[in-house]
Automatic annotation (TrEMBL):
Name this protein carries in UniProt: Secondary thiamine-phosphate synthase enzyme
Domain of life, source organism: Bacteria
Signal peptide: none
Similarity-based family: Belongs to the UPF0047 family.
Phylogenetic classification of the source organism: Bacteria, Bacillati, Bacillota, Clostridia, Lachnospirales
Organism, as annotated: Hespellia stercorisuis DSM 15480
Coiled coil (residue ranges): none
Length: 134
């Protein structure tokens, strides 16, 4: 098993950053040819998703859609830090994703990439990549 940690500086209050290449580099470093990869965010206001990489409007529309479901500001929120929306978005996205390694390659669809999702930035974040051979 291999564990890698990464740091990412987000620049916006809400953004989705492609991290697929970082994970691919970890796979190469590990030398694992077959197994699984788990990416994990130890933050309660940031998570991961796998989604379309071809049209940047998809990322825009996803952030817009989640903002309409979980608005940044609401008179009903009680959380003193003012980031309840970020906690809800992270819960909907999830703090982790599990992917497959086959023949030394990360298996993703033609239009897919792995995104680190920031909902309470800008911040300096970290995430972990666990590679399990098998």
């Amino acid at each position: 098993m291999y564990l890698f940690d990464h740091h990412i500086a987000t620049k916006s209050s809400q953004q989705m950053s492609k991290v697929t290449d970082m994970v691919r580099e970890d796979i190469i470093k590990s030398g694992v040819r077959s197994g699984i990869v788990v990416v994990y965010s130890p933050h309660t206001t940031a998570g991961f998703t796998i989604n379309e990489n071809a049209d940047p409007d998809v990322v825009h529309d996803m952030l817009l859609g989640y903002e309409s479901v979980f608005p940044t500001h609401s008179e009903h929120y009680r959380h003193a830090e003012g980031n309840s929306h970020a906690h809800m978005k992270t819960t909907a996205f999830g703090p982790s994703q599990t992917l497959i390694i086959h023949d030394g390659e990360l298996i993703l669809g033609m239009w897919q990439d792995l995104y680190f999702c920031e909902f309470d930035g800008p911040r300096n974040r970290k995430f972990f990549v666990k590679i399990i051979e098998g």
